[in-house]
């Protein structure tokens, strides 16, 4: 996969790659904010909850379109959902080896798809709850809450995964999601 | 260095602004589409002029979003090839300077001084930077000019500027050998 920008060597042999374009970063942090708002601050019955929930849907939809036509590392083709590769990656991680991935690593890729899908389930159940047909339906309410609990677990795992991988590969992943650039130590190969 | 960083930051600002507009427009598009969808489920029809206009607006917004996304991708691609080109040019400039210095048989300390001259430092600055006497630097620069067969600082610059403006920069080390007999 071609990085968005070629590498150049810093003084210590570390290489810097432009990976996350501004649209990926904006969508990421807006989605995190929307989930924080709806999960922790806005009550389920407030009209703002609905609006923020639909905004989360629009964010995911935008990201999906960008995953089809966007820049290199943002494309789904750069991080295909591949459970076998994720298992291989897990094994490499345990041995402390493996290349640094410029896009998501195979495990992180699965988590990204999982989070997007969960948000879609939340919005779908939220929407249906408000329709005449399903109004007052208990199981939809429960499905909405269960999806939210699953999202909480996922986000917790996501943040732990980011922290662990930053420590393991010595690539500062969180700054990369802010500035867009990953700096890879000289002794690591890149994929 | 700072002057080279500036356009990069301006470019980043441009890309960021475009991305923010894309996102805002995508949110609007979604709400328009949702509105049309709700109206339809509530018995609205596209032959109603109001509905038709709304549907058209929704379609236009979606087309706009996709078009701007393609623009953003184009913009980012251009920035990255500009950055690559700049780095290549920088690398070639270093190569060029090295090969001129080789052909003039500069000693290691003369190379340092010559490089600082090219970077625009005057003799006092160079003396301070290298921790030597100003007289030493003056002697070194005189030696450099005589080895390079130039009359002074601006003539030395002109050798490199000439290489930059002639079109064989870009053909690797060739121009350096050609320039060696200046
Ligand atoms: C509700 C909160 C969050 C959600 C729903 C979320 C979701 C996601 C998703 C879907 C991706 C994939 C991005 C893409 O390809 O567009 C991602 C990537 C990422 N997120 Fe989050 N995130 C959340 C919070 C955070 C937080 C708090 C941090 C920082 C500590 C963080 C750091 C990152 C990083 C560094 C990546 C890129 C990982 C990589 O390099 O492969 N996220 N996140
Ligand atoms: C990112 C998307 C969403 C998240 C994270 C989310 C989260 C939650 C949570 C945590 C609750 C239960 C807590 C509470 O009642 O305050 C809840 C309830 C609710 N949500 Fe959402 N939600 C999302 C999207 C939506 C959408 C799009 C709609 C509707 C269009 C919606 C409609 C509702 C309703 C009606 C309730 C109240 C259900 C009840 O009384 O138990 N939600 N949501």
In short:
The complex is a heterodimer of chains A (191) and B (182). Chain A has a two-stranded antiparallel ribbon. Chain A has 191 residues and is mostly helical.
Q: Keywords, please?
A:
heterodimer; A: 191 residues; mainly alpha; Fumarate Reductase Cytochrome B subunit; two-stranded antiparallel ribbon; 63% helix; elongated; disordered N terminus; B: 182 residues; Arc Repressor Mutant, subunit A; 7 helices; disordered C terminus; binds protoporphyrin IX containing FE; transmembrane helix (chain B); WH-like_DNA-bd_sf (chain B); membrane (chain B)
Number of strands of chain B: 0
Helix/strand-derived category of chain A reads mainly alpha
Q: Specify the oligomeric state.
A: heterodimer
Count of domains of chain A: 1
What characterizes the major β-sheet of chain A?
2 strands, antiparallel
Largest sheet of chain B: none
Work out the strand percent of chain B: under 5%
Enumerate the spans of chain B where pLDDT stays under 50 for 5 or more consecutive residues. Answer: 1-7, 169-182
Helix content percent band of chain B: over 70%
**Total number of helices of chain B:** 7
Per the principal axes of the C-alpha atoms, what is the gross shape of chain A? elongated
What is the number of E strands of chain A?
A: 2
Q: What this model shows, in words?
A:
The complex is a heterodimer of chains A (191) and B (182). Chain A is mainly alpha-helical and 191 residues long. Chain A has one domain (23-184): Transmembrane di-heme cytochromes, Chain C (Fumarate Reductase Cytochrome B subunit, Up-down Bundle), CATH 1.20.950. Chain A has 6 helices and 2 strands, in the order E-H-H-H-H-H-H-E. Chain A has helices at residues 22-41, 47-69, 83-95, 106-130, 138-169, 173-179; strands spanning 15-18, 181-184. Chain A has a two-stranded antiparallel ribbon. In chain A, helix 2 runs antiparallel to helix 4 (106-130). The model of chain A is unreliable at 1-11 (pLDDT under 50). Chain B is mainly alpha-helical and 182 residues long. Chain B has 2 domains: 10-84; 104-177, Arc Repressor Mutant, subunit A, CATH 1.10.10. Chain B is built from 7 helices and no strands. The radius of gyration of chain B is 30 Å and the shape is rod-shaped. Bound molecules: protoporphyrin IX containing FE (2 copies). Residues 24, 27-28, 31-32, 35, 63, 104, 108, 112, 115-116, 155, 158-159, 162, 173-174, 176-177 of chain A line the site of one protoporphyrin IX containing FE (HEM).
């Amino acid at each position: 996969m071609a990085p968005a920008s070629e590498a150049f060597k810093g003084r210590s042999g570390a290489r810097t790659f432009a990976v996350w374009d501004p649209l990926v970063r904006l969508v990421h942090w807006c989605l995190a904010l929307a989930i924080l708002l709806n999960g922790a601050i806005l009550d389920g019955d407030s009209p703002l909850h609905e609006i923020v929930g639909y905004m989360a849907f629009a964010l995911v939809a935008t990201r999906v379109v960008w995953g089809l036509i966007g820049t290199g590392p943002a494309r789904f083709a750069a991080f295909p959902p591949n459970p076998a590769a994720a298992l291989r990656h897990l094994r490499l991680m345990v041995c402390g080896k493996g290349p640094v991935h410029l896009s998501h690593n195979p495990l992180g890729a699965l988590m990204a798809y999982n989070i997007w899908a969960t948000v879609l389930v939340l919005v779908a159940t939220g929407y249906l709850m408000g329709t005449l047909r399903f109004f007052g339906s208990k199981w939809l309410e429960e499905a909405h809450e269960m999806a939210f609990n699953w999202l909480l677990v996922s986000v917790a795992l996501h943040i732990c995964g980011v922290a662990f991988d930053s420590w393991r590969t010595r690539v500062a992943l969180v700054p990369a999601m802010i500035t867009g650039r990953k700096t890879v130590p000289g002794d690591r190969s890149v994929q | 260095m700072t002057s080279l960083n500036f356009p990069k930051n301006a470019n980043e600002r441009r890309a960021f602004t475009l991305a923010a507009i894309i996102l805002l427009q995508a949110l609007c598009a979604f709400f328009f589409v949702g509105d049309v969808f709700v109206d339809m489920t509530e018995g609205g029809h596209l032959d109603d002029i109001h509905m038709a206009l709304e549907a058209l607006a929704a379609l236009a917004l979606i087309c706009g979003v996709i078009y701007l996304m393609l623009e953003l991708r184009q913009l980012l691609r251009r920035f990255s090839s500009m950055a690559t080109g700049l780095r290549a040019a920088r690398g070639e400039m270093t190569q060029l300077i090295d090969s001129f210095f080789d052909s003039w048989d500069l000693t290691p300390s003369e190379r340092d001084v010559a490089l600082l001259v090219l970077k625009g430092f005057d003799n006092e600055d160079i003396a301070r930077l290298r921790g030597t006497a100003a007289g030493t630097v003056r002697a070194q620069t005189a030696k450099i000019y005589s080895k390079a067969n130039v009359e002074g600082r601006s003539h030395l610059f002109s050798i490199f500027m000439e290489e930059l403006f002639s079109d064989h920069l870009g053909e690797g080390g060739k121009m350096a050998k050609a320039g060696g007999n200046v």
